[in-house]
Amino acid sequence: MQADLTLLGLGPDGWGLALARAGLMTLYVSVAAFLSGLAFGTLIAWARVAGNWPLRKLAEAYATVFRGVPDILVIYLFYFGGRQVVTAIGTALGLSGPFDISGFLAGVLAIGLISAANQSEVLRGAYQAVPRGTIEAGRVVGMTRLILFRRVIAPQALVTAIPGMGNQWQSVIKESALVSVTGLVETMRQVAVAAGTTQEHFLFYAAGAIIYLIITTLSDHVFRLAERRSLRGHEQGGL
Amino acid sequence: MSLPSTALSIAGLRKSFGSNEVLRGIDLVAKDGDVISLIGASGSGKSTLLRCIPMLEIPDVGTVSVGEDSLSPTGGRLSRAQLAVARQMRGHLGFVFQNFNLWPHRTVLQNVIEAPLFVQSRPRAEAVEEATALLEKVGLAEKRDAWPAHLSGGQQQRVAIARALAQRPRAILFDEPTSALDPELVGEVLKVIRALAAEGRTMLIVTHEMGFAREVSSRVVFLHQGLIEEAGTPGQVFGNPASERCRAFLSGHFDRNR
Ligand SMILES: Nc1ncnc2c1ncn2[C@@H]1O[C@H](COP(=O)(O)OP(=O)(O)O)[C@@H](O)[C@H]1O
Ligand SMILES: [Mg+2]
């Protein structure tokens, strides 16, 4: 086992640098997917809470579909299906191939849209947990809908949403491993390549696990910190 | 001396929830300086009446006026233009809820300056100065940086009163301000409302505290099944009510409180 460890180093035979880059790529993909999920999830949640009937039904259907279909299938659909669509369009326009789409983009979109469905659930639940009385108190002093949302609803809902959003972030990190099927060199892909090349499967998959654990543990701390800060003033928080 | 002008008026107000007709034609006027107590059995429509004034519930028909602003909604909804008027009206009212409804994510001071800053767009220094004076008035100056969750119910309700006063309201509406309080905390809130009455504030108070109502009110209104069944000075309504129902309601109440 001793010799093996140099494989993880920064030396000429070491995969250290490649693994670090791959870890960063995992982080990029996850952050991009989480943020697009947040943006889109907010829209979905809003449609479900405040939309008219067709909008509400559409948003519900969206959540049902993306929560009910395996994530890997959505990624295949976006990457391989997307490539097919792009090729068809390109050919129709008389352009010469080969056509390709970015694994990064397809992966981020696929995971972002899946995450949007889940995040919209968290956000909707958080909105519904805002005490009605505090909303009435805002209306009765003359707040507009926008001010009410910004000053009364959002700050309270975010507190409730933080733990759930932390969970969503953790799942996005783990789902980002699925993007390896597009050939994007993130952590999963990189350790698979290294394991195959060196035949040191246990070593590299263990290293991969550690990379994911570092990311998830650190972000767990960040979310806990955010939760503690935001709970100031609430019963659980203390001063 | 000029006569006090009308602070608030309600005319021909009706409101149903589905097939349940809760208010069946209410007329009520409060002149500046009036303290009107609304009494009546549970379910008689007191809260609904109070909530119709700032359009928290939208009347089916009828007119509500606060100072210069007046609204006559139809069909239980407000148009965009009417909503703007409703907001303006809300800006001239203070509303105190049974359950306080402070904003839990803001400190005591922040609760009081919230509307002055973010609705009325007053300068911060001015809003803080005024809020500090109001907190002094309700006896909570030293709690200005506390979180609502760390206050007793009585303290929270006094903050809610300071928040209502920060509206510089033409009239203040109270919906059973002491009903959610432990008995030993009722007194401190009633004391504050009493002081406001002594200042000549215009108030509409839904209450079950009959002794208090008798003492502070210029008029007492007894509501029964969505109609004003009896109205008059405290002496008339408590001393010699014309309505049999009012008499029965009061005797039940005083018996219970003995
Ligand atoms: N938002 C509402 N939806 C349906 N019914 C309501 C609503 N608010 C009040 N009611 C009904 O209206 C009637 C009067 O209620 P309320 O005004 O709260 O009476 P009070 O304050 O005198 O006890 C009750 O029968 C109550 O159930
Ligand atoms: Mg009531």
Automatic annotation (TrEMBL), chain B:
Q: Which GO terms describe its cellular component?
A: plasma membrane
Question: Pfam families in the record, alphabetically?
Answer: ABC_tran (PF00005)
- Keyword Nucleotide-binding recorded: yes
The protein's name: Histidine/lysine/arginine/ornithine ABC transporter ATP-binding protein
Q: What subcellular locations does the record give?
A: Cell membrane
Q: Describe the family membership recorded for this protein in Swiss-Prot or TrEMBL.
A: Belongs to the ABC transporter superfamily.
Question: Residues in domain ABC transporter?
Answer: 8-250
Q: Which PROSITE patterns match?
A: ABC_TRANSPORTER_1 (PS00211), ABC_TRANSPORTER_2 (PS50893)
Q: From what superkingdom does this record's organism come?
A: Bacteria
CDD domains found in the cross-reference section? ABC_HisP_GlnQ
Kindly state which keywords UniProt assigns to this record, in alphabetical order.
ATP-binding, Cell membrane, Membrane, Nucleotide-binding, Transport
